[in-house]
Specification:
Elements: E1 3-7, E2 11-13, E3 18-25, E4 33-39, E5 46-51, E6 68-73, E7 78-83, E8 92-100, E9 103-106, E10 110-115
Length: 116
């Protein structure tokens, strides 16, 4: 049974930091492309960052460049998103994605709220 569980979401003030985690089980994580997406209220889900199985990262969303860092641990089957200098516009539900053998698996999401 494939399962992705995000954690680390919280309410913080602008300028703060959070580290999101996504623990994967039941998927071949080490060979998978993985990523973080987010969805703010009233908006479509958008890509934040992608990291391939060899730890190559694709371009970050312009809105998070220089502030967010994606990483992964193929031993612990865990995906991370370090978020610094958070802004109110970063408020969203953050979802992790695992793509393996042509299948996409999503977590249930974790809420990040940034206040002024």
């Amino acid at each position: 049974q494939e399962r992705l569980v995000e954690s680390g979401g919280d309410s913080v003030q602008a300028g703060g930091s959070l580290r999101l985690s996504c623990a994967a089980s039941g998927v071949t994580f080490r060979n998978a492309a993985t990523g973080w997406y987010r969805q703010a209220p009233g908006k479509e889900r958008e890509k934040v960052a992608i990291i391939d199985s060899d730890a190559t990262t694709n371009p970050y969303a312009d809105s998070v460049k220089g502030r967010f860092t994606i990483s992964r641990d193929n031993v612990e089957n865990t995906l991370y998103l370090q978020m610094n200098s958070l802004r109110p516009e970063d408020t969203a539900i953050y979802y992790c994605l695992v793509i393996t053998f042509g299948q996409r698996y999503w977590g249930a999401g974790t809420q990040v709220t940034v206040s002024t």
